[in-house]
Amino acid sequence: MQALGTTSISMISRAKSFYELLKFRLSFLVAFSCGFGYLLGNTGTVDWAHFLWLVLGGFLISGTSIVINQITEKEYDKLMTRTQNRPLPTGRLSVNEARQFAVLTGLLGFGILVWQTNMLTVVLSFVSMILYSFVYTPLKRVGPIAVFVGAIPGALPPLLGWVAATGSITYEAMIIFGIQFIWQFPHFWAIAWVADEDYKRAGFKLLPSGGKQDLNTAINIMIYTLFLLPLGLLPTYFGLVGITSGVIVTICGVLFLAQTFSLMKDYSRRSALKIMFGSFIYLPIVQIAYLLDKV
């Protein structure tokens, strides 16, 4: 009986480790953005079963990319305080187990998309996974060009959702892609600022302007945040959504931008943290506002 109990605890522990590999919150945010694009692009009655399959497929493919990222960066994760307790650096899971898990989640994710969506959605999802796992990840040790490359798969989920709903890439799809693409820069750089010591230990070079926590980097963050103000109004301008969401998005953009001025003033980790958390709040509020105000 005791052996059975020990086995059950071990199985639960391993299941928890596989769950950690998926980085649920990040994968959920990707799936949420994918669902947002689908609902915004849908013009008829929403097929909720189709919607849920799309979200699940997006979640699994995002999880696959994240697992591959952790396999590639296992030795670097050991060097960083924020990642050294992940399943691979601690040895709770082996690299081979993680590879098998990535194959399983990837096959399930792509299988769902092939079954429930269209070939363009599947191809774009594959491109997103390749860019994130095999281009962005190694570029993190090369220089800040990694942020530009990483912003592409980071911004593809809403476009994928739109394509799943409409079957084509339209200018509206490119607008919602553009908003999330530009958002990636203050988001990435705020995280890189907060985790600067950890990233340096691992050899990651993500901050712009020579990789320093200085005024030039803070100005870069401010400029990209500023771009979100006109971009956020494009869905209203083109009649995709109403004026109410335009007002909400502008207010959110101004508040987000205001946080960057503190960083330009004191270059502190605290100010960078505010921008980081502000970026997490900005995107879902904007997307929900668009959906509620869809014309």
Short descriptors:
2 domains, Tetracycline Repressor, domain 2, mainly alpha, globular, 13 helices, about 300 residues, about 0% strand
Can you walk through the features of this model?
The chain is mostly helical and 295 residues long. The chain folds into two domains: 21-139 and 146-169, UbiA prenyltransferase (Tetracycline Repressor, domain 2, Orthogonal Bundle); 170-295. The chain is built from 13 helices and no strands. The protein has helices at residues 2-22, 24-41, 48-72, 74-77, 87-90, 95-116, 119-139, 145-166, 171-194, 196-202, 215-237, 243-266, 269-292. α3 (48-72) runs antiparallel to α6 (95-116), α8 runs antiparallel to α9 (171-194) and α9 packs antiparallel against α13 (269-292). The longest helix is centred in the first third of the chain and has 25 residues, at 48-72. The radius of gyration is 20 Å and the shape is globular. The mean pLDDT is 92.
The top-level CATH class of the largest domain is Mainly Alpha
User: Radius of gyration in whole Å, from Cα?
Assistant: 20 Å
The outline comes out as: globular
Share of residues in helices:
over 70%
Kindly state the number of beta strands. 0
Q: Calculate the terminal CA-CA distance, rounded to whole Å.
A: 62 Å
Structurally, how many domains make up the residues?
Answer: 2
| Class from helix and strand fractions | mainly alpha
CATH topology grouping of the largest domain: Tetracycline Repressor, domain 2
Q: How does the major sheet shape up?
A: none
Classified in CATH, the superfamily of the largest domain is: UbiA prenyltransferase
**SS summary, helix count:** 13
**Sequence of secondary-structure elements:** HHHHHHHHHHHHH
- Can you name the CATH architecture of the largest domain? Orthogonal Bundle
Flag low-confidence runs. Answer: none
Strand content: under 5%
**Mean of residue pLDDT values:** 92
